């Protein structure tokens, strides 16, 4: 029976627990209320789907049916007119690609018209690549249709109040439509092009597209997507399944995804197509593509055709305020495209704003913090210039950079920055970083195979992700490297570098890249961006070569102090067409890399603000609970620095340990033992006996109900400094999978806050026995490798007490034998080891002492040989086991035991061992060894029973 004092203590504890639970419930309900208050509501939106017939073409009399859906906010009517948004999809998509964005715009009070562009999905017609007479005129007819709606606000008869939003293919349409039709009130083009000929035939030294290097990878995807689309309303029931370029603008930047083709229909080529291979592309587009793809070069006619579908030539006619959003992870339309559009529009006096974000054709929407920023800018722009609400957004330049991981959901976080004036890709300042290296020969492979992998559609950093498996091909590239940077540099814009080249052919196609190389030698090519150049008129020797300035694609990247810059000049790239004939060129890069910088101010987003509000609320809850728990613990267990004199020299003393859970379950009822210097103590017991609970209490992972634990005389409580003298492996290893084994050990040691010189990495790695695998990432480790590394981690500081839970789990027999020797060697110089294991044979061979626990209590403890005790049986080591069995079978009372595991184990049943040996010798059988035979397993089963089960460890 418990004493009154004990009962009172229980009542106080229960009262405190009730107060804690009640306080927690109130705070959680408050958090739920705040969260409910800030979450957006789904607005009511109604839709109207229809095929709209439009007349387009050069003469305006070519009829085509467009598959449309109009999204209307609740309450829109002739009495309550609303402004409109024309929402265009990306190449290969359909109106379904932008459904979620249309619903959100409609929820914000806009009438949103989406449609499937001609040549895609269920719409009729052929693909003309945003031709002013076709796709652009189609959009003009849709403006007419909107102006005729009684529920759409108009500025005049036939002039709807409208903004145009689109990504990639739809972004170019927004620009071209605003140039061609002055009824457009504002546009938000995203991740789109300026000059389509330069986009697909780039040349980074300033040459015309006819000298450009064909971007064959992306072009193949465009024509592959356009070649297998549905055949129009008559032959298709259903909508687009694949979306190579969607444009979810209101929920963030566009998030294109790869697809074999955008249509679900039969995919036949329409009448008039130039080649069946081009599907629904118009004949002139198809013919131009086939010419370029065959030769790798563009003629002037092809360039003129592509420029016909480019905003570059009509930017001065755009009067609609323009928000240009461009992706930093975009090898199709990099940041320079938006820069050219911005300069052309601003030159005409039109309000223009530029925003760069971390996504793009290769990076999707980017982190949520970044997509939220772009969403805010988009809505702000439309609300002011179309809806007529809010202050003018201004023309400041914003961009973003990946900043790390979110502490709440472990997703990537991007930090946004602002600068008052748009500086372009040249930046506001330049930083020169010298690079050096000898002139080097580089081979152009025949037919461009094998080719380097750097910029691959939809995979902007593939070479970095593959960790060197793919990348620059040996013999096909030259490297020029800087010294480590003395301080970090924030690059915002297009770097430049001078290269020289020589070739016996007089011409070379080269790909210039700028890598960020960390102190460990890992090289990263930012977003997989490369600068292709076609150099002509080259001398045969490098001494006669003149420098050519190469402008690399604009990037946003922080190059940390201690990192190096590496300029690579390669002859091949899988994303581009290269000369078929093999050749060997000589290249050199001298001087310096010029890095653009912009000194911007960090900017928050609404999502960031709410994230911090919620994070602060969660932190307040956690702090409150910690304070309450700390107060309760302090009442009953005050930490002190006194040393119990009886245990001052004892690594571990466990006294009357008890652990009882709230539901009444008793995991440990009375455990009492000591571990002395030089001992390897095995903690044994059946499953559920209380072994793991004892270790968890020992390591401070759970609190005991009663009893004390002393480590070198110090009473063990959470946070006790004496814990630093214990090394432990309890409940399995836990490592960061993206780090190597060695990096994990170093990170663990840094987290302990102890001096680096106190770590014994060499000894630990020798113990782990992982060899070169210690430099591989943990995610590639087997369970056994992780176990060995965890044991090495426990031994890093050569702690005076080592506590291991199942240390041989996952190890093979040779590794188990080595672990046995390691533990025996470790228990020297005053150190001690406590091992919990179910492998009784290993405990018997490894441990000096054992503690046997059953049902939460100790049933035996002491030296292993004492627990094993005297043996009723004898092990005979003889020269002829079969003959010996026959002799022993004839002796009265003597029997050979059947469980000898290949050895001769005999129960003498009182017969003197000398007499048994004499009989064997008389029979001519040599007897080499006679030893008592009793295993720890026999003693263990005798102590706990063969069918014993513990009380269930927790």
Automatic annotation (TrEMBL):
Q: What's in the keyword line of the UniProt record?
A: ATP-binding, Hydrolase, Membrane, Nucleotide-binding, Transmembrane, Transmembrane helix, Transport
Which segments carry the region annotation Disordered? 234-274
Q: Which domain of life is it from?
A: Bacteria
Q: Which residues form the ABC transporter domain?
A: 652-880
**SMART domains for this protein:** AAA, PepX_C
Instruction: Tell me the PROSITE patterns matching this sequence.
Output: ABC_TRANSPORTER_1, ABC_TRANSPORTER_2
Query: Which SUPFAM superfamilies does the record associate with it?
Result: alpha/beta-Hydrolases, Galactose-binding domain-like, P-loop containing nucleoside triphosphate hydrolases
Transmembrane region(s): 20-39, 609-632
Which GO molecular function annotations are given, in alphabetical order? Answer: ATP binding; ATP hydrolysis activity; dipeptidyl-peptidase activity
* Pfam families membership: ABC_tran (PF00005), Peptidase_S15 (PF02129), PepX_C (PF08530)
Q: Does the keyword Transmembrane helix apply?
A: yes
Where is the sequence biased in composition, kind Low complexity?
A: 236-250
Similarity comment: Belongs to the ABC transporter superfamily.
Q: Which PANTHER family does its entry note?
A: ABC TRANSPORTER, ATP-BINDING PROTEIN
State the protein's name: ABC-2 type transport system ATP-binding protein
Q: Which organism is it from?
A: Micromonospora echinofusca
């Amino acid at each position: 029976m418990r004493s009154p004092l004990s009962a009172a203590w229980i009542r106080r504890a229960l009262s405190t627990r009730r107060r804690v639970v009640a306080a927690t419930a109130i705070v959680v309900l408050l958090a739920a209320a705040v969260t409910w208050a800030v979450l957006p509501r789904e607005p009511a939106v109604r839709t109207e789907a229809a095929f709209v017939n439009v007349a387009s073409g050069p003469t305006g009399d070519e009829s085509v049916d467009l598959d449309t859906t109009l999204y209307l906010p609740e309450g829109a009517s002739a009495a309550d007119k609303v402004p409109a948004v024309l929402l265009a999809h990306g190449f290969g998509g359909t109106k379904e690609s932008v459904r979620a964005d249309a619903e959100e715009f409609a929820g914000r009070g806009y009438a949103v018209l989406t449609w499937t562009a001609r040549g895609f999905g269920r719409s009729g017609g052929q693909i003309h690549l945003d031709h002013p007479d076709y796709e652009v005129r189609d959009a003009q007819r849709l403006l007419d249709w909107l102006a005729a709606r009684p529920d759409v606000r108009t500025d005049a008869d036939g002039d709807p109040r409208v903004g145009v939003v689109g990504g990639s293919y739809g972004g170019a349409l927004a620009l071209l439509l605003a140039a061609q039709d002055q009824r457009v009130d504002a546009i938000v083009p995203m991740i789109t092009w300026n000059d389509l000929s330069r986009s697909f035939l780039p040349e980074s030294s300033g040459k015309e597209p006819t000298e450009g290097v064909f971007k064959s990878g992306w072009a193949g995807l465009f024509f592959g997507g356009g070649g297998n689309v549905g055949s129009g309303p008559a032959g298709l029931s259903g909508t687009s399944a694949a979306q190579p370029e969607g444009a979810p603008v209101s929920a963030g930047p566009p998030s294109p995804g790869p697809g074999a083709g955008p249509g679900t229909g039969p995919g036949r080529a329409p009448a008039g197509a130039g080649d069946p291979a081009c599907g629904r592309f118009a004949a002139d587009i198809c013919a131009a593509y086939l010419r370029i793809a065959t030769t790798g070069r563009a003629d002037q006619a092809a360039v003129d055709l592509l420029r016909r579908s480019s905003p570059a030539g009509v930017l001065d006619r755009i009067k609609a305020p323009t928000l240009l959003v461009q992706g930093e992870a975009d090898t199709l339309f990099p940041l320079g495209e938006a820069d050219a559009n911005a300069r052309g529009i601003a030159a005409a006096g039109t309000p223009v704003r530029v925003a760069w974000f971390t996504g793009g054709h290769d990076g999707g929407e980017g982190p949520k913090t970044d997509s939220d920023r772009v969403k805010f800018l988009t809505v702000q722009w439309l609300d002011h210039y179309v809806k007529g609400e809010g202050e003018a957004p201004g023309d400041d330049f914003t961009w973003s950079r990946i900043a790390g991981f979110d502490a709440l959901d472990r997703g990537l976080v991007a930090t946004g920055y602002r600068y008052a004036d748009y500086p372009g890709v040249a930046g506001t300042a330049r930083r020169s970083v010298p690079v050096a290296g000898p002139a080097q020969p580089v081979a152009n492979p025949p037919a461009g195979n094998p080719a380097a992998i750097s910029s691959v559609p939809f995979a902007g950093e593939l070479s970095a992700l593959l960790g060197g498996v793919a990348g620059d091909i040996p013999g096909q590239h030259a490297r020029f490297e800087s010294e480590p940077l003395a301080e970090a540099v924030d690059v915002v814009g297009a770097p430049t570098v001078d290269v020289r080249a020589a070739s016996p052919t007089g011409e070379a196609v080269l790909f210039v890249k700028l890598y960020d190389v960390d102190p460990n030698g890992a090289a990263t090519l930012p977003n997989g961006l490369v600068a292709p150049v076609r150099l002509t008129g080259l001398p045969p020797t490098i001494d006669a070569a003149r420098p050519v300035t190469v402008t690399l694609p604009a990037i946003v990247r922080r190059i940390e102090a201690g990192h190096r810059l590496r300029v690579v000049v390669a002859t091949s790239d899988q994303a581009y067409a290269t000369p078929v004939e093999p050749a060997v060129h000589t290249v050199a890069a001298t001087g310096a890399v010029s890095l653009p910088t912009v000194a911007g101010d960090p900017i928050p987003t609404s999502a960031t603000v709410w994230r911090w509000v919620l994070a602060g609320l969660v932190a307040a809850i956690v702090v409150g609970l910690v304070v309450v728990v700390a107060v309760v613990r302090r009442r009953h267990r005050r930490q002190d620095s006194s040393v119990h004199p009886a245990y001052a020299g004892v690594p571990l003393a466990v006294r009357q340990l008890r652990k009882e859970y709230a539901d009444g379950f008793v995991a440990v009822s009375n455990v009492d033992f000591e571990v002395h210097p030089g001992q390897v103590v095995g903690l044994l017991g059946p499953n559920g006996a209380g072994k793991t609970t004892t270790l968890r209490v020992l390591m401070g992972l759970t609190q005991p109900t009663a009893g004390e634990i002393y480590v070198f005389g110090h009473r063990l409580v959470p946070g006790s400094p004496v814990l630093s003298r214990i090394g432990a492996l309890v409940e399995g290893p836990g490592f960061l999978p993206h780090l190597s084994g060695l990096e994990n050990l170093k990170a663990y040691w840094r987290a302990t806050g102890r001096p680096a010189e106190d770590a014994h990495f060499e000894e630990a790695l020798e113990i782990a026995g992982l060899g070169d695998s210690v430099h591989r990432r943990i995610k590639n480790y087997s369970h056994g490798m992780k176990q060995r590394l965890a044991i090495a981690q426990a031994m890093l500081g050569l702690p005076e007490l080592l506590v291991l839970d199942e240390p041989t789990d996952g190890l093979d027999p040779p590794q188990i034998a080595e672990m046995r020797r390691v533990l025996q060697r470790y228990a020297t110089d005053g150190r001690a080891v406590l091992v919990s294991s179910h492998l009784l044979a290993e405990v018997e061979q490894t441990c000096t002492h054992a503690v046997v626990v059953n049902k939460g209590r100790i049933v035996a403890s002491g030296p292993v040989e004492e627990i094993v005790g005297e043996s009723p049986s004898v092990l005979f080591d003889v020269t002829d086991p079969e003959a010996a069995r026959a002799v022993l079978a004839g002796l009265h009372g003597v029997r050979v035991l059947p469980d000898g595991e290949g050895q001769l184990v005999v129960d003498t049943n009182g017969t003197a061992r000398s007499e048994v040996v004499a009989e064997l010798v008389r029979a001519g059988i040599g007897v080499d060894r006679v030893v008592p035979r009793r295993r720890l397993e026999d003693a263990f089963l005798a102590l706990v029973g063969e069918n014993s089960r513990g009380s269930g460890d927790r």
